[in-house]
Amino acid sequence: MSAIILDQTIVHYEAMGRGRPIVFLHSWVGSWRYWIAAMQVASTSFRAYALDLFGYGDTAHDSSRYSLEQQASLVTRFLDEMGIGKIAIVGHGLGALVGLQFATRRPGNVDRIMAVNLPPDFNSINAKLRTSTAIELADWLSSRTPESVTALSDASKVDTGAIAASMNSFQSDRLFTQFRATDIPCLLVYGQNDPSITVPPVETLRATSLLSIHMHQINLEGSGHFPMIDETAKFNRLLIDFLALDSGLSPRELELKEEWKRRVR
User: Fold this and answer.
1) What pLDDT does 262 receive?
2) pLDDT, tens digit (0-9, with 9 covering 90-100), for 42-89
3) Does this model's pTM top 0.85?
4) 74-87: string of b/e by CB count within 10 Å (b at 16+)?
5) Domain around 165
C-alpha cells in the first residue's frame, strides 16, 4: 500500500506502469480497487495512479473535506506533491464530478477526461443513491459476480457522510457550464442499465448546451453502474482507443470498434 501525507492527513493511492500520467478516480461505492484491470491495461503505456478520495478506502475520514471542491483539492495537492504535470483523468460517478471540478480549476493540467456514468444534473441521481449506505449501494449496484464482490470489497470502509456531502455540493454547483468553457476533450461513457443514474439522451444534452464539440457520448448496452467490471474487455478497449487519440482531438474522432458502434451518439 502506498500513502502520502497531505495537510496532515493520510491519502492512499496505488500506481503502476511508466509513461505519461493517468489518474483514476472512483465513485460513491468502493475505492481505487475496482480500477485494477483498467490500470493494468493502461500501464503498458502510461503511469497509472488510482486515489482513494477523502472518506473512502484507506484515505482519512474527515467530514470537512467531503465536498466536490475539497475532493478536487486532494487531487491538486497530490499532483503538486508528487511533481506530476499534465494528466489524463478517468473518473466514475463521484470521481467524474471531482475530475471535472479539478479541470475547471486547473485546465492546463488536464489533457483529456473519460467521465463514466456521470450524472448530468442532480435530478438524474436516483434518490436511493443519495440516501443509502455504501454497503447497501454495493448490494444494489453490483452484478454479484465473484469479480464484482472482490472489486467492491472496500464498500464497508466508506463514510456515508462523504456520499451525502458530495451530493449536497453538486446540487448547488454550476459544474457543467464551467467545464464546457475549458474545451478539454471529454468522452462520456454510460452503462445503459445503470439504475442509479438516468442515462441522458444525447439530444437532451445538446439542447441544454451541456455537450460541446469537444465532448462525445457512448452507451454500453451490457453494463450497469460499473462498466469497468460488467464489460471489462470492452471498457478497456474503449479506454485505450481514447487514450491513443492525439492531444487536443475531440473524442468524436474515435475509430470505434464494431461491438459498440450501434450505441455511439
Assistant:
1) 45
2) 999 999 999 999 999 999 999 999 999 999 999 999 999 999 999 999
3) yes
4) bbeebbeeeebeeb
5) 2-263
CA 70 to the chain's CA centroid? 16
Helix H or strand E encompassing 179: helix 175-180
Q: How many domains in the chain? A: 1
SS3 76: helix
**pLDDT one-digit tens code per residue, 221-242:** 999 999 999 999 999 999 999 9
Torsion of CA 224, 164, 25, 108, to 10 degrees: 120
Pairing of strands 46-51, 9-16: antiparallel
Helix, coil or strand: residue 20: strand
C-alpha cell at 178: 464551467
- Kindly report the CATH number assigned to the domain that includes residue 155: 3.40.50.1820
pLDDT of residue 125 exceeding 70: yes
Residues 6+ apart with CB under 8 A from 194: 117, 141, 223, 224, 225
Q: Is residue 46 within 8 Å of residue 240, measured between CB atoms?
A: no
Q: Kindly give, in sequence order, each residue whose CB lies less than 8 Å from that of residue 222, ignoring residues fewer than 6 positions away.
A: 192, 193, 230, 231, 234
